[in-house]
Amino acid sequence: RRVLFRSVMYKLLALDLDDTLLNDKGEISEVNRKAILKAQKKGIKIVLASGRPTGAMTRFIEELELDKNGGYIVSFNGGEIINCETRESVFKKALTIKEIHRVYDASKKHNCSIITYRGDNIVSETMDEYIGVEVELTKMPLIQESSFKEAVDFEGVKCIVLQEPSYLKKVEKLMKDEFSDLSISISKPFFLEITAKGIDKGHTIGKLAESLNICQDEVIACGNAENDLSMIKYAGLGVWVANTASELHKYGQDVVASNEEDGVAELIEKYLL
User: How many CB atoms lie under 10 A from the CB of residue 159?
Assistant: First the structure.
């Protein structure tokens, strides 16, 4: 574990949700919640940054009082920013219909499932155990269409390609080679997330920080997975929770306790309070 001591006064804390802020039951512990409320009382901007769609994140706004303290949501792996006070979208960049259809074709070629989002619904042709995980996590209804490409006649902020983890790592490499014009990263081991070119958590948090006149050095980011890497690299202080794959540790400056052991509260006590 490498510990970084800085004289910087941090102003923004970006937190991944699943397996970082949320415990294995998908809940925010009381210890983490109280720590976040304390940080906000000191004027720290809290940003929830997740691969989840917006509709699967808004339920945490009131629980953490983000609407009362100038908080933000970065959803779809960086595809959208929501102002928690007004509930308005202040930034959004979507995949074109053509891009979604190209990703669909590739997913079929590689024998993977694919989903996207229409309003507050998940859209897919199929249902399997990995899509079931997304349904359970987001609490969003699944609409199964007979033809994905006919149904998806709209721009979508994100697609997820799903398959068994060891095989999906191989698909990730193939699709990164094939789609250099898109952003591709793994969140959960069986979720390969695809967004518009240049869109990731780090890019969008940087865009938000700039709009708030917050310097890069004044940002802390905390996560646990490959799709958090861009914000860990962007932040003045990048922190992993202990349940992160060890090969990612070198890209951050510190490792705190796991998502099951209130690692976010440890981070807040250590660097913000």
Answer: 23
Q: How confident is the model at residue 1 (pLDDT cuts 50, 70, 90)?
A: very low
Q: Note the pLDDT of residue 8.
A: 77
Q: How many residues can be counted in the chain? A: 273
Q: Using alpha carbons only, what angle is made at residue 92 by residues 86 and 94, rounded to the nearest 5 degrees? A: 150
Go through 108-126 and write b for each residue having 16 or more CB atoms within 10 A of its CB, e for each that does not.
eebebbbbbbeeeebbbbe
Q: What is the DSSP string of 194-206?
A: EEETT-SHHHHHH
How far apart are the C-alpha atoms of 205 and 218, rounded to whole Å?
A: 12
Beta bridge partners of 222: 15, 239
Looking up tokens 């990048």 gives: 238
User: Which strands, in side-by-side order, build the sheet including 113-118?
Assistant: 142-144, 121-124, 113-118, 159-162, 191-196, 182-186
Q: State the pTM of this model.
A: 0.93
Please report, for residues 61, 157, 172, the alpha-carbon distance to residue 162 in angstroms, rounded to integers and kept in the order given: 28, 17, 10
For tokens 């994140």, what's the residue?
57
